[in-house]
Amino acid sequence: MKFLNILLAAFRALHRNKMRSFLTMLGIIIGVGAVIIMLAIGQGAEYSVKEQISSLGQNILIIFPGSQQQGTTRSGAGTMTTLTEEDAAAIAKECPAVAYVSPGSRAGGQVIAGNMNWQTGIEGVGASYLEIRKWKIEYGEFFSEQDVKAASKVCVLGKTVAKNLFQDSDPVGQTIRIRNVPFKVLGVLSEKGQNSMGQDQDDVILAPYTTVLRRLSHFPYLRSILVSAVSPNDITKAQEQITSLLRQRHKISAWEQDDFTIRNQADIASMATATSEILTILLASIASVSLIVGGIGIMNIMLVSVTERTREIGIRMSVGAKSRDILTQFLIEAMVLSLLGGFIGILFGVIGSKVVSGFAGWPTFITSFSILLSFGFSILIGVFFGFYPARKAAMLNPIDALRYE
Fold it and tell me: For residue 73, is pLDDT > 60?
């Protein structure tokens, strides 16, 4: 028999039992669709995290104080008081791979504007902070280097703070009180949205770090130093230069550990995306189970089909069909079921991902890899689970097949 004749015979056999063929394909349809939807959810979460990491700025390095140790007990990163304003100034001056530096301090408290109040965090930053974060002022202006040096009582509001304190009125030029200290509002930041941890980045007030240190926190040491490298290729070089400089400034011996920690953007991204990557693999693995169940369904129906068509197989063999022709015919039937199911499953998965994104509000991201993976897996399912029934049909004895009732 020619291959085309075998193919037509396979399609005719499936067409004779349309409902049974559709129900058999349903397992593959659901399996492929589920894999695509689960991968879209997982990859959407991963993509969202990466977007949030990129919103931190470009070529970022964050320097934290080290961990305090008493005996064998370590208190964790950030518990030492080792970073100073002079350290930040030295990094800006002596590290050629560094473009911008912003010392960081922090305070919190109730903010009052007229008869409105709001509890928020006050970030003390340098004049280069917006350059590092690639953050823009929506209206008004940012404070200057002179404001930082003079520890001026000026600030810039995040969108959330501005909305809660001033409603629809213009806050620029207005005075707010932070811990009973008056601050003049210079501007309002553009909307940034939530970060990868779900925190509202717009619920913040930016003020000169010197002002926060001396008037609000009364803490002489920096909580962090935010640094931007000259280019992505200079991140590692900048980290090495900063490490060498700080070890020298802090008089750390060669055998002693650093009393500070440096995180670069790649480290932050890898830590943040690790959970979402595991989630993607877990979701895809769970969804793949339904594909295997669909494959078992194909095997089951094909075995039933072999039993029902035993006399037909005997007749085909008696008129010249060879075992490989019978094997090919039943294998093609199984593959057609899985291929059609896979194609419909892809459509189901794409539409389902859009529905999940629209109704649940979850970010979904469909890649060509997830589609090819699902479709290729459905083909393998058809071949793997269709081979045994096809081989069973091909191994039938023609005489026994003709006698079968």
Answer: no
Question: Coil, strand, or helix at residue 79?
Answer: coil
258, 288, 320 - which closes a domain: 258
Tell me the per-residue pLDDT of 103-134, one tens digit each, with 9 for 90 and over: 999 998 889 998 899 999 899 999 999 988 88
Q: How far out from the chain centre does Cα 245 lie? A: 35
Sign of CA dihedral 24, 25, 27, 28: positive
* Angle at CA of residue 305, ends 339 and 33, nearest 5°: 30
For residue 239, give the DSSP letter.
H
> Does residue 124 contact residue 147 with C-beta atoms inside 8 Å?
no
What is the CB neighbour count within 10 angstroms for residue 329? Answer: 24
In a domain, 72, yes or no: no
Distance between CA atoms of residues 289 and 381, nearest Å: 12
Domain that holds residue 174: 81-258
Same domain, 108 and 200: yes
Say whether both 249 and 275 belong to one domain: no
What digits encode the pLDDT tens for the residues 325-375? 777 777 777 788 888 888 888 898 888 888 887 776 677 778 787 788 777
Kindly state whether residues 19 and 95 are assigned to the same domain.
Answer: no
Tokens of 69: 């140790």
How many residues comprise the chain? 405
Domain check: are 89 and 37 in the same one?
Answer: no
- Helix 368-394 / helix 323-360 crossing angle, nearest 10 deg: 150
Both structure tokens of 339: 């291929």
